[in-house]
Amino acid sequence: MTALLWLVACTRSGGGAHVEPSFLEVTLGNVDLGTPEAPLPFSSTLAAVPVSVRALDREGAPVDFDGDLSVRVRPGRLGEDPWIQVTDGVWSGTVSIRNGFGPTRIWFTDEGDKDQGTGRAPGWAAGVSPAFHYRFPTLSEMQETTDPETNQLAGEFARVRVDDRRVVVTAREAAGFWVTDLDSPVGSGNNLYVYTFQRPPSEAVVGARLTLLGGIDQEYLASTQISHPTLAFAPDAPVAPPEAAELDACDDPLAVEGLEAARVRLTDAVVPEDFGPGSEAYADYLAYGQWPLVVGNCTWYVESSGAAPDLVAVELAGRTLPRVEGMLKQIFDKWVLVLVDAADLTLPAARPAAPRSAR
Amino acid sequence: MRVVDAVRVSVCMGVLAGATGCVPVAVDGDPPDLSGRAVRMTFLHTSDVHARLFEYDFDPSFTDNQLGLQDDAGPYGGIAEMATILRRERAKAGRALHFDSGDGFQGAIVFNEFAGEAEFRTLSAAGLDGAVLANHEFDAGTENLADQMLANAAYPLLAANYDFQSADLPWATQLEDFVLPTAMYDLDGLRVGVIGMANLSSLNSLEEQLNSLGIRVLEAGDVVPQRASELRDAGADIVVVVSHMGLEWDKEMARQFSGIDLILGGHNHIALDPPLIVVNDATGKEVPVVHSGAFAKFVGRLDVVIQDRRILSHDYHLFAVDRTIPKDPQVEEILDEYRLRLDADYRLDQAIGFAEEQLNRYGSGGGDSPLGNFTAEAMRTFPGIETEIALTNTLGIRADIPQGDITLDTLYNAMPFDNTITTMFLSGREVQELLDYVSFRSSERGCNSQAQVAGLAFTMDCAAHVARDIVVNGAPLDPSGTYELATNNYIAHGGSGFEVLQRNTTQVDTGVSIRDVVQAAIIRYSSLPQAGVCVEDGRIQPVY
Known about the structure:
The complex is a heterodimer of chains A (359) and B (544). Chain A has 359 residues and is mostly beta strands. Helices cover 8% and strands 38% of the residues of chain A. Chain A has four helices and 22 strands. Helices cover 28% and strands 27% of the residues of chain B. In chain B, the strands form six sheets. A seven-stranded mixed sheet of chain B has the order 1-8-9-11-12-14-13. Chain B has a seven-stranded mixed sheet with strand order 7-5-4-3-2-15-16. Chain B has a five-stranded mixed sheet with strand order 21-18-25-20-26.
């Protein structure tokens, strides 16, 4: 095996005798790393980091190595092609990174060449930069996006900045709860659903303030949620949750996205006259329990089975509901108000009895 | 100049072995001095294969899709396909180890027929470096486990929290000798210490002092810190726990025990991508907690960078096992032996019925389900059983039955357990207690009913942990009445915490296989669902 690799190493294109490194020494240029006590701000804008990499052999001595190294940043995102090319055992340049949070490091690994056609066998040496210390993102920073179906940290085990903010529970249900950052503007993406799978912890009462919030950041059916959460709550008395935000327009998807997971309200919303057997909305209602409401030119949906299981929505076809409040979630192209209490729904007055002559 | 060879592994089993002469394999000379140097290490991870050695069909969920298992890419799973991924990823790593978090047994007919032989042989052929002992490994008996392990496992089985003590049970002695608490692996100078933590929650008799398995259970708090310390003293650069304790325990261990650097877990059948990161209370160290799914659907790969005996950073990738993955020829050759023997004894692909649509084991709203209702009704009405009511645990049904032909193979995948029907008489008050417990247990699982019933209807109040408005065959429950119940012998013995059944003294184990009863019902109806049969009818109404 050794002889075979020797042969490969000596005959790769580019000529010369080459040796795969055993270690990679990574140094950073003049750059502020932050500290745990004074972290750098979270940023979704790329920052160029000056970096040098030096290849070392098994004894830690510099080695004459030509080849590619892969680059990654954990946690966070890279701004460019995740490969660099090392010549004569060294590389110097910049690596652009964004969305780092907590201790963040840049990795380099010898995984073979980007162009696998060179036939160079990887040596698997690795090196990491010293840690940057970034602040965790606020809910609004985490959800800043131009695409309503994703967010800045989707796919990460995310940590959210809550320790110096008023992030409070706004509602709870059988397998999760909602939170809002009261220190961010309404509609700025300052709300989130926390999926607990089982009954939320007893401390997660409405108005409770979180002191720790982390978990897997995922887009579930196009709604942002934190699953498998790590949680801690302040012992403070619960505060009043925010008032519901009025939903009055649907033509700007990003504006609606900014209210995702917030408590929202519809006023004088109409259940479509044609909502009934044979309609697509009715089929969806039977399958998923969501029923439509129209305000102006916007159609919204309501999920009431948890909070008002006895409600037969189809009996409301053609009626106007004075008030509906719920937690806003996105299900692909639909926006759905999830009722958490039967009192969130004000039903229309009973239909007046028809005149005797009309019976 | 020197060319680095492929890294090889020496396994030194047990801390004592490590301390008394486990010699690292030198690669072109002595291992390098790793102090102050960053080193990459790759962990390949599987768990809860549950005998899905042969590929199978099912309808991936949205979560499966998100994790990379695409619709219409079936059949899925298969140990030969997993082996291909494992060898491919091992080839794309330097220092690499593959650990399995247990429950390789139980879940398909190959286990019912060969009692774990095929699982041990194929996992060994796939290059597994170590596995934790898990609850379903005991499903064909402890003696069987010992025999199969000694004959067929080419990797160490680990369980630091089991003490096999009983001198009266010969297999306990065998397990004491061969199930290790820890293992040490040396990879070109990097020493990885591993602690196995076996399951506590799913073996009924484990809690009892002199249990029938001959096992004395040790507290995690007594085991993990001590073993981690021993491994560190023996030179481990990092300490890994390979666990079948379940996710909540894994999180607790990471939070409480400062000696742990990484947990590779199983038991809950979940895939976490990315892994959880748990901050240790005492040190602030961030500990990755990895779960890589179940039923041979995924293979996990965790790359870590280690420097000065600490994990500095990690990156995780989950690989879906589907039909795009070629079969590993070495493992496939072993599987062929079992395939031929199964084909000779059964006609696994013969249709016994037809599913007009997928028959789900969970209800759409968290209550009763089509397959649950069908199973409970089949139990209650089977000739010779004929009880007033039936109740079985939802988790006893392990998979949905996909749309299309229902074959013996799909039936075994859905109902792998060899459980039998137990009948007993319950008072009305005991029925109330039973359904209250179902409500409590379900409330801890998102108010998804953990039982399926026949002859009963009730409102499952997950907030109050009580069952309300209980109706028995159309009449309100009479607290003073007496009702005959058909249930499965697992929960009749107190499995899943059903103590109200365990203490009942009128139990009769009929010996009638639940799977056989369901098979007979499928054959009788031929096509499912039908009006009132194998449909969700709201007999369990969850509220929360």
